[in-house]
Write a structure and sequence with these properties.
alpha+beta; 11-stranded antiparallel sheet; 2 domains; about 15% helix; single chain
């Protein structure tokens, strides 16, 4: 008889633990993530250039462009952007200083979020990563929205010293069916920014 009571008590204990665990999972799932993402990808290769200290292009990084645009799904404010090139090829650009360009860091396609939609090819060059950039704004300084067609811009390649400064300005314009833009190197002191030809980055939307 004592054995039967022990078994009953054991089942009651297991049941209480299971109920407690279920309650925790349900609370967590009832808090939706306010950040969503729009995905964009090109169909033809484009190039991003790096510079030497004499403000000369010294390296051409070419691949298929892609962008992850993170935004608040309530306010539609763009909160961050990832921008890169897939399946890159790197070439030295002839220049008067005969520099070969600073080696860049390349990633595996599997390390990129949403790669199951992009189907990127190795190696991947991430020109714009999460963080390390200025606020993403319209020309008048207002926050950029993912559902607006107004041109937006932001700055990257932050350098410490001399008050701190950015080296690259990125500008894009998009409609629901097309994103186009590029980069301008604005660092006249160390020339450590990046640039592209005018509106060289052209992409189409991908629905996640």
């Amino acid at each position: 008889m004592k054995r039967v009571w022990l078994l009953v008590l054991s089942f009651l204990f297991v049941g209480l633990v299971a109920c407690g665990g279920g309650g925790g999972e349900s609370t967590s799932s009832s808090s939706p993530n306010p950040i969503s993402a729009n995905l964009w990808m090109g169909t033809t290769p484009t190039s991003i250039y790096t510079f030497n200290w004499n403000t000369e292009r010294d390296q051409r990084i070419t691949g298929i462009p892609f962008m992850i645009m993170y935004y608040n799904n309530t306010t539609h404010k763009i909160t961050d952007i990832k921008l890169g090139l897939s399946g890159v090829k790197v070439e030295i650009v002839p220049n008067p200083m005969n520099t070969k360009g600073i080696p860049q860091i390349y990633m595996h396609a599997s390390d990129i979020e949403y790669n199951s939609y992009f189907q990127l090819n190795d190696p991947v060059y991430l020109a714009v990563g999460i963080g390390g950039k200025s606020t993403i704004t319209l020309a008048n300084g207002d926050p950029a929205l993912n559902n607006s067609t107004a041109p937006f811009s932001f700055y990257t390649d932050w350098h410490i010293g001399y008050g701190g400064y950015y080296s690259t300005k990125w500008t894009f314009t998009h409609t629901p069916g097309h994103m186009i833009g590029g980069a301008t190197m604005i660092d006249t002191f160390t020339s450590l920014g990046q640039d592209t030809d005018l509106n060289a980055i052209s992409m189409l939307p991908i629905n996640p």
